Amino acid sequence: MKYIQFIFLFLFSSALFAQGGNGDLPGGEVEVIGTFEAQLDDAERVSVKPELPPLQENTTTQTYNNLPTRTLEINYPAPSIRPMSMRGEPTPEAYSAYGKVGVGLPNAFLAEAGYGKRFGDKFDFALNADFLSMNNSKNVENQKFSNFGSEVEGTYYFDNGMAVKGDIGFASDKLHYFAYNELEAFEDMSFADSDVMQRFNLFELGANFFNGKQTVGDLNYNFGADFYSLSDNFATDETGFELYASGKKYFDNQHPLDVALRLDFTSYEDTTEQSLNNFYLEPSFTFVGDIFKVRAGANLVNSDDEFFLFPDAEVLVNVIGSTLSAFAGADGTLEKQDFRTLTEYNPFLQSRIQLTNNKVQYYYGGVKGAVSFFDYRAEVGYQRNDNLALYLPVFDLAQRPYAQRFTPVFDSIDIVRIGGTLTARPIKNMEVRGTVNQNIYSTTRVEKPWHLPALELNGTVLYKLLDGKALLRGELFVENGVPFLNAEGEADNLNGLFDISIGGEYFFTENIGAFLQVNNLANNRRQRWQNYPTLGVNALVGISAKF
């Protein structure tokens, strides 16, 4: 009301000032007939209750490199911990095509290429291909590998808001069983490439339908199917087929109801045939309050006519705004341990395995937030595994007795997990990332958690300079020596990992640049898998382009 009175008095006084300032107006007498009293009706007061926006857990992380990078060594599995929320950063300029070609030591070659394009608001597609090989046979016979991967995907958007996406991919990874170099029984013996070679060929095909635009009822949906076929050099074949459907309905634009259904079929064949089929139903509802969020749901799983019920719940409370949030939750599922998942973790696995599920239950709690120039997350959890795969060496006497491989053994294992992640931006254009995870194992039947790491630590420093034309990178990987059975049948530990790597990239022009990557400066020859030492110092140098 006071703002309306102020505006009226201001206009009225302005009018008087304008009239008083004009000396050409005619003079004369003015007869006042009546007193004019301006009155305004009482304004109706509108009560507005302020509300905080919906809690956001994930935001965009800045990409510091316009071209994808390639790890030159055998991958170090990252600690198992949920990603923390990150501050949003501007999206870097996008390019339609990129490419990389490089050579290095020991006898290394790298090639990468990709292209993507969007045609208006109707269609977009992307294709990528990469190849990496290294050969250290001059120092360790048959210590060499090559990895090839390719993928094409495209999405079409219909006028009615529906969209359809399809993708197809092929990968071929080649490695060798060179453990005999570490064994006295094969001292002074030599084997041809074909005698100890293993090759994994993977074909993938997928399609899904989803809403490309927001629906009138504020409902998101996704229906699809995925297929893969995996074969190796020992006449082993595995196929997987998955059907899935999911829907998300928002109430009051912030409380989502989620329902997901997944049918997962796996067929495995070597000298015998096996199958493993799991069916998952996952409903959940999330309520978002002013300073808290609560998700309540379940994961219902059926496998082999047996039903399992797991929780899917989490509570998040903003204790001090975005500075400090506390969370706690519980979840669980049946994890398939098939040929694909096991060989992705241990590529030196033997081809004769038994398909099985691991019943996983996880309970956790922790804190996360953003303070000044860094984001953090710390978590403590307890995980129960009813059938977790461990790994022991074996010689396949029926095929290649000199080719040491590994066989999975299964045990019920309790794991206490303590971990955290930290991302800091101490100065402009610099980002420091760190992740640490400590696992404390308690086995049931076996003596030790064979070939499972207890301590994992990863760190990365990225720094952009010269107005973004150059990028410097430093990386640190630390891992304890994993337990194994020695030649006397006693429990022992392999040597640990300490790997320092550096790299950089510089663009001479807007489109053409050069890169250098040097890994394992400490020349650490740790054995992640018994009798399989990793590469020592290795490097790549080459040119890169983006258009």
Keyphrases for this structure?
Maltoporin, Chain A; 547 residues; 22-stranded antiparallel beta barrel; disordered N terminus; single chain; 2 helices; mainly beta
The H/E string reads HEEEEEEEEEEEEEHEEEEEEEEEEEEE
End-to-end separation in angstroms reads 60 Å
The share of residues in extended strands comes to over 45%
Question: How many extended strands?
Answer: 26
User: How many DSSP helices?
Assistant: 2
The CATH superfamily is known as TonB-dependent receptor, beta-barrel domain
Rg over C-alpha atoms, rounded to the nearest angstrom: 31 Å
- CATH topology-level name: Maltoporin, Chain A
- Catalogue the unreliable spans: 1-91
Percent range of helical residues? under 10%
CATH class wording: Mainly Beta
> What gross morphology would you assign?
globular
| Main β sheet profile | 22 strands, antiparallel, barrel
Q: What's the pLDDT, averaged over the residues?
A: 85
Category by helix and strand content: mainly beta
What is the number of domains? 1
CATH architecture group name: Beta Barrel
Protein described:
This protein has a 22-stranded antiparallel beta barrel. It has helices spanning 2-20, 339-345; strands at residues 97-105, 108-119, 123-135, 144-157, 162-176, 197-211, 219-231, 237-251, 255-269, 273-288, 292-303, 306-320, 324-337, 356-371, 374-395, 404-424, 430-442, 455-465, 470-479, 483-485, 491-493, 497-507, 512-519, 527-529, 532-533, 538-546. Strand 3 and strand 4 form a beta hairpin. 20% of the residues are buried. It has a single domain (66-546), classed as TonB-dependent receptor, beta-barrel domain (Maltoporin, Chain A), CATH 2.40.170. The model is unreliable at 1-91 (pLDDT under 50). The protein has 547 residues and is mainly beta.
